[in-house]
Amino acid sequence: MQEVTSCCISMVxxxxxxxxxxxxxxxxxxxxxxxxxxxVDQLSLPRSTYTYVGAAWGTTSWLDxxxxxxxxxxxxxxxINCRYGI
Length: 86
Prior knowledge:
Shape: globular
Structural class: alpha+beta
Radius of gyration: 14 Å
Helix content: 25-40%
Order of helices and strands: EHEHEEEH
């Protein structure tokens, strides 16, 4: 990562890393630790959260994540939620 002077950096994306399936989430988690980033949704939302519903079987996964630097934690942490049924 390049050094930046901004004090509020966050990423919201489909990282395709389900919290309940460690093979990909562990990679994302290790990356965040290595680069001093925080997976804010994992810290603030219940384990039952999901961001994807499979059409064929109706299964759910938590694939989308919000990642930020420490300086952005307070702003992002308070406002994060998942809205279902829209």
